[in-house]
Design a protein that fits this description.
The protein is mainly α and 153 residues long. The chain is 43% helix and 0% strand.
């Protein structure tokens, strides 16, 4: 898939926004900027964390670990719509083909297109994650959601 053709449809974004309000905004904030209970899903912290990973990895993490309190409870289509909404909020263009859960396109490329200039790698993202104060609202215990392979949400 070429990044500039879009990795999801605008209809998925609309449905994803509705699902986000219902299932995600309480922890990740209405603006996707994060709270003490949920990491940012937009902006530099999100991009640094996810740019080297694929859309499929974001889908898998969302599907397995979210929503808080009922992980893995949402239907596949709802998770695809949520991922489309998150990608859209980060500037990735919509296209004609629906998002596929097995899309191997790197998120940095989906968001920034062919002009993507990757950051130095996962080590930089880990530094942002560790310094983000993810323990706020968790009794200072540093609780954060950790994705398969050790990545944080």
């Amino acid at each position: 898939m070429i990044a500039d053709t879009g990795a999801y449809t605008q209809q998925q974004v609309s449905k994803g926004q509705e699902a986000y309000v219902a299932y995600c905004a309480e922890c990740h904030h209405a603006t996707l900027r994060g709270t003490g209970h949920g990491l940012p899903l937009t902006g530099p912290a999100f991009t640094a964390r996810w740019e080297h990973r694929s859309i499929a990895e974001l889908f898998e993490t969302t599907s397995m670990l979210m929503p808080a309190g009922a992980p893995g409870s949402l239907r596949r289509q709802v998770n695809e719509d949520l991922v489309a909404y998150v990608l859209s909020a980060n500037g990735a263009p919509a296209g004609d083909a629906p998002l596929s859960a097995d899309n191997s396109l790197q998120i940095g490329l989906a968001i920034q297109g062919e002009g993507w200039k990757p950051t130095p790698g996962p080590e930089a993202a880990r530094a942002i994650w560790e310094g983000a104060g993810s323990g706020a609202g968790a009794g200072g215990k540093g609780l954060g959601v950790v994705a398969p392979g050790g990545g944080g949400w």
